[in-house]
Hints:
Layout (H helix, E strand, L loop, with lengths): L1 E6 L4 E8 L3 E9 L1 H5 L6 H23 L8 E7 L3 H18 L3 E5 H12 L7 E6 L4 E6 L5 E6 L5 H11 L7 H8 L24 H17 L5 H27 L3 E5 L6 H13 L3 E3 L10 H13 L20 H4 L2
Parallel strand pairs: 1-4, 4-5, 6-9, 9-10
Antiparallel strand pairs: 1-2, 2-3, 6-7, 7-8
Helix pairs in contact: 2-3, 4-10, 5-7, 6-8, 8-9
Amino acid sequence: MKILAFESSCDETAVAVVEDGRKVLTDQIFSQADLHAVYGGVVPEIASRCHVESISLLTDRALQAANISREDIDAVAVTYAPGLIGAVLVGVNFAKSVALALGVPLIPVHHIRGHIAANYLAYPELEPPFLCLAISGGNSLLVDVKGYTDMEIIGQTRDDAAGECFDKTARVLGLPYPGGKPIDALSQGGDDSKYSFPISHLDDNPYDMSFSGLKTAVINLVHNAEQKGEELDRASLAASFTKAVSDSLVPRAIAAAKEKGRDKLVVAGGVAANSRIRADFKAAAEANGLQLFVPPLRLCGDNGAMIGAQGYYEYLAGTRAGSDLNAYATMDLNVAYDTLTR
């Protein structure tokens, strides 16, 4: 089964063709990062306009790269939530028109479910159940994946997402947007014990996270040093900050996997590209006898292939959408699409 998949939740326009949920025939991505770097973050109106300008051409390019025709497409999958509402609407409306024109089913896919499914593309042997930590610019979730479409959130950030914290820290350090890769590069060789940053602990749910205090601590440290004319060890600051994020994520994920009785631990999302976090997860998984699955760097960020992968399993579960499909800026991972249309 060949699924044409669209992802436009933020600042990447992505169109992919995925076969049977596991094989990527093509994954075309147009990144707007350079356009938004001038502003130090994503400008929603610019993102939406760029999606409109690129999605049609990118679709033609995807079909050519996959060496298939429109008639070979069996279904269309699209991110319908969560994300920048204008950006998501572009993908949803384009996907609806394509599905209608081709006379094939339209499959709505939750963005975070897509990030989790990216690992199915990298690891053919991976099957639920498993414990997944999904960490990106807008989301930080601990998810017990009981089945391909049966998931339970057991922990999440109460405020900022881990990826957002990376971007804000990069900005205050004068690093380019997006901040994850520059901070990773800067932190190499830094002393991760030179600066002390807070790690949240929430008594009512030990698996919930908070990154606003960490973000504020970094900003205050930098601003105080500037006001006093003191020079900061930027590499060590980046290393200490990354350690604090990792120390917030890794122990929680390991503990959650143990409590749920899962022997497989999956990490997904853009923050999973960070070299320190990947290394810490590898060491912790080995120490605790867990199988670790972390996607290759190309599948950590937003892409269309992950939407096609999850779209296949949503299709098998009977998830369908009609021409009334809407886009949502926020949406719980566990909300079944059919409940939105009743």
